[in-house]
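User: Reviewer 2 asked us to show a designed sequence for the structure in our supplementary figure. I'm pasting the structure tokens here. Could you produce the per-position amino acids so we can include them in the response letter?
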């Protein structure tokens, strides 16, 4: 049994969060019971203080990295670490134009599979062809190669 430092009730140890404390060399239980922690958390979340704290944290380098990692995991199923590895494998260059610019993830919209990293421009250019509209791509290439004069077939 342990007494909560906030509400003063005596409760079982299972009512307290526990963690391994390396310096102490054993499992330690928090002073507040789980119920008090939940109440505090709800109050903090409802007040604007937590939101302001999160907004300020997101502006730090650590926060930016965490936000980028969350977005990559959610949208493409890869981590920021995997993105960086792909970037190094491609020598920091777009796979299509070979320019050394900021890269974005290119993925197949049907399967969701990541194909590689492209610059934003190239990723936007190939976007319309992602849906299997290869006839359009052939006509566009022919149009450009023949100087812009194509008769309708």
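Assistant: Here is a per-position design you can include in the supplement:
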């Amino acid at each position: 049994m342990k007494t909560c430092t906030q509400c003063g009730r005596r409760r079982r140890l299972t009512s307290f969060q526990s963690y391994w404390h390396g310096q102490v060399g054993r499992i330690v239980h928090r002073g507040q019971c789980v119920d008090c922690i939940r109440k505090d958390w709800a109050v903090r979340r409802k007040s604007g203080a937590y939101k302001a704290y999160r907004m300020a944290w997101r502006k730090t380098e650590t926060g930016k990295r965490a936000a980028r990692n969350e977005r990559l995991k959610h949208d493409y199923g890869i981590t920021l670490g995997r993105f960086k590895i792909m970037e190094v494998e491609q020598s920091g260059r777009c796979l299509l134009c070979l320019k050394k610019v900021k890269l974005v993830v290119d993925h197949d919209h049907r399967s969701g599979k990541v194909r590689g990293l492209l610059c934003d421009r190239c990723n936007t250019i190939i976007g319309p062809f992602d849906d299997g509209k290869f006839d359009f791509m052939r006509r566009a290439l022919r149009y450009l190669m023949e100087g812009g004069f194509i008769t309708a077939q």
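For the response letter, you might also mention the following. The helical segments are 34-46, 48-58, 61-76, 80-89, 120-126, 134-145. The chain has six helices and six strands.
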